[in-house]
Amino acid sequence: MSSNLVGRHLRTQTSSIIATTVCFLVVALVLTGLMAHVVVTMTRSANEIDDARASRAARAAIAAFVARLSATTTDNAVWDDAYSAASTPAAADWAYENWGKTSAEYALYDGAIVIGPDRSSIVSAYAKGKPFQPSAFFGEGFYRQIGAAADPAQEPVVNFIKTESGIALIASQAIQPFGEKAELPKLSTLSFYKEFTQEVLDTLSNEHELEGLRLEATPKPEFLNTPITDMKGAVIGYLVWPSKAPGSTVFQQVTPYVAAAVAILSLFLVGVLLVGATEARRLRQLAQAALFEAGHDSLSGLLNRSGLLSLLGDMENSESSPTRLYLIDLDGFKAVNDAWGHAVGDDLIRMVSKALMACHPEVVAAARLGGDEFALVHVGSATCEDMEKTVLALFAKPYKIDGRTIEVGASIGAAARDGDVEPLELLRRADMALYRAKANGRGQAVEYDPELDQERQRVAELESLLKNAISSGAIEAVFQPLVSASTGTVTGLEALARWRTATGNVSPEIFIPLAERCGLIDALGVHMLRTSIEHAKNWPDLALSVNVSPVQLCNPGFAAEVISVLQELDFDPKRLTLEITEGVLMTNPEQARRSIDQLKRVGIKFALDDFGCGYASIGALRQFGFDRMKIDRSLVSALDEGASGADVLRATISLATALQIPVTAEGIENSRQAAILRDAGCDQLQGYLIGRPMSARDISGKLREDAAA
């Protein structure tokens, strides 16, 4: 996964956690707000309901107070005895005995007043059993009340009235007989009053559950208030009492529990915030670590391929000096791993990484692109030659690791960013230059040139032609005779590949390595094996030798494929010899050994080609059990260079003889070479002296001529 994808992925996770935490907190706060609103609403509603009940109770108390005094007044004013006495000279005494004296301790009224028919003369007026002056006590409102109550058809007139000492309730009604009369003269008026004392208020409070009820001249905002009005509707006082506020009382009772719940919720929300913040911080740290890991090599700490491309992309719009990219491939690193193990190889990689990063002040970044491939990004005025010399100088001296002396070299490919060159293109150009540097040999440095691309294009075109040539059979098999050194008779044939095109022949030294590089060698090898066997079936008395590429032999399916071709063409495996070079013994000896053993079990023989020019050990030669060795043509050519060449050749043949392996000498061009080789112990000869590579038709003709002779 690229660093950008990793970063986006982890940023998405972080954003999700933050969003989830915020949503959770919002939901929790909304729910808390709703619950708080419910509690407050219930508390307020309970208080308002009780306050409304209390207000109704206060009005009911006043109404009961009024009704009680009104009933008392009617009971006494509508009375035959009172009506009869009111018109006699003894009216005052009668009124005193029945009403005035009673007012001293009577619970229903505090005073009784009788006004004569003229509505102004006082017949009797007692308050608390003592005479008093109503006009002084009640003011002018008293006579308005009397005037309103003088009508015998009128119910008692009851009003609150302002008095000298406070507020009183006064009820007035005409004194009249109980029975109906057609016409009545003007009547006297009876009035009872009851002062609104605290004692009366306490009674009303007990009767109507109005605790703390009292009378005030003005309303009290912090209490419940009910106005008291006089006969004109003017407010003359207020009944005031405290609200019970049952909702608030209940809320106070549950406040500790609510507080505990709020505290727990707060702790929970704080915990959620802390967890969310911790997780977000952890993810940010992971994102930073992942971004670093995605763009850096874990072993060396340098940038990796993704990190290098990202850096080059960031530098595209830079106004600094032109960027130059160097690719460095270590020469001999595989041998270090094979000889000392991967732990030492890793230590070497780390040491080389530090050296490359610090090799030049104009190196802005270093990267490790693969096992032993590095990159340097250079921005500055230093020339390419100076940078290459600086890098190569790092490998001029061996590295010391745990007492071991390790020597490695480097091949360098360089490419400069010209114009709007994309990072991938710049990397490709440097890689092309590195490929050419490695092809040129160890310790080489090559700068990118467009000619490299043109050559690559030519190689690609040649690859396409080679693929078509293999599939169409355009690559043909020619055969070079192998003769007995003692008799000179042809004992076998070596099949050689030839590619003839309309523009000329393509050398095997070109198309066989090309086939190995582009992955066509297996197809080419099967084609050559099949073609050679098809022709060799016409020569039943001769052995057939076919060259095998090391790449083929290291393919796990190679042995099965060869056996399949032999079975398909019904060819005797004992007639077939596969020739391999010494290089296969070093590149992948285990797989080579498995393939050789599997093929030898069915009767196929193996010859070691180009013996004497490689570095295979005697132990390896004995381990693989070769059936024949072919002396390299360079040793044969050395016979013409002096006596030392003959001595080397004889020593090489003696080695093969000591291993009890028969020897074939190739590249023989004159009779002297053939004689020396025959005397040295070679039992089979091959070369232009014996016969050039020929087509199958020419081989058949030569065999017929030899048979006729």
Automatic annotation (TrEMBL):
Write down the InterPro entries for this protein, in alphabetical order: Biofilm_reg_signaling (IPR052155), CHASE4 (IPR007892), EAL_dom (IPR001633), EAL_sf (IPR035919), GGDEF_dom (IPR000160), Nucleotide_cyclase (IPR029787), Rev_trsase/Diguanyl_cyclase (IPR043128)
Q: Which PROSITE patterns match?
A: EAL (PS50883), GGDEF (PS50887)
User: Where does the chain cross the membrane?
Assistant: 17-40, 257-277
Q: Where is the GGDEF domain?
A: 321-450
**What is a single Pfam family found in this protein's UniProt entry?**
GGDEF
> Where in the numbering of this chain does the EAL domain appear?
459-707
Alphabetically sorted, this entry's keywords are:
Membrane, Transmembrane, Transmembrane helix
Mind telling me which Gene3D superfamilies this protein's record contains? 3.30.70.270, EAL domain
- Give the protein's recorded name: Bifunctional diguanylate cyclase/phosphodiesterase
Please name the source species: Rhizobium hidalgonense
- What high-level taxonomic lineage is stated for the organism? Bacteria, Pseudomonadati, Pseudomonadota, Alphaproteobacteria, Hyphomicrobiales
